[in-house]
Amino acid sequence: MDQIIIDGLEIFANHGVFPEENRLGQKFVVSVVLYLDTRRAGKSDDLEQSVNYGEVSQRITDFIQNHTYQLIETVAEKTAEDLLLHYSMVQKVQFRIEKPWAPVGLPLRTVGIQIEREWHTAYVAFGSNLGDKKAYLDQAIEGLSKTKGCQVVRVSDYIVTEPYGGVEQEEFLNGALCLRTLLTSDELLDRLHELEQDAKRERIVRWGPRTLDLDILFYDDQVIDTKTLHVPHIDLQNRDFVLKPMAQIAPYLRHPVLNQTMEQLWAKLQEQGQ
Questions:
Q1: Helix (H, G, I), strand (E, B), or coil: what is residue 193?
Q2: By three-state DSSP, how is residue 43 classified?
Q3: What are 122-166's pLDDT values in tens digits?
Q4: Running DSSP on this structure, what letter comes out for residue 255?
Q5: Selected catalytic residue, list 27, 43, 78, 99
Q6: What element of type H or E holds 9?
């Protein structure tokens, strides 16, 4: 991916653990790498097809001067987030901030921190089989779309499906969505659990009835296997209520382990069912 580089931007601002740092201020040196596609700009010679590095430099300066944090880790995190949220063309930001006058009482040139933050693509399955099912699903999608650092890109049709897992209960209303997000996979999982709690979700019987069920199916092309999260979602290749909506919104998305597209997995499951 192409890069726009801003190196050694000097900013006088008020950040630090000590009160005098916040009161008197000090110099910070910022370097940023913006990752984006600059080919259209290069071919057309049109600045509108790229990002104006002068404008970016001013935005960074204004943001850092108009906020006060104790930690430069927070300065880096918040500023990188602001850039990603403001400049839609930018996919990833590498952000470094240095503190030449750090009050550590030892001879050093500078201290600093460097981070990388980027947009991720996640796919989330949703379902409900209690109460006003459609209202619960609508509420969850709206909640995600209003979450800072989350952009709902596509939503499948809602489909009626039979219960899965052998527990006798009402039919489900299911679907899937594509999400562009700045949240880590664990942060996204926490947010989904919050939305389930907002819908008064109760975890009493495994695969039992629920007001709202939200599951991360894919997170980029990562394979995640922890105590709390398994991605790609386990057994999704055997679930029609997952594959049918996924084949609708992302037919050519390839499973990173099974190496088959959603369309292929859905067709295979249908054949097995017949």
A1: helix
A2: helix
A3: 999 999 988 899 999 999 999 999 999 999 999 999 999 877 655
A4: P
A5: 99
A6: strand 2-13
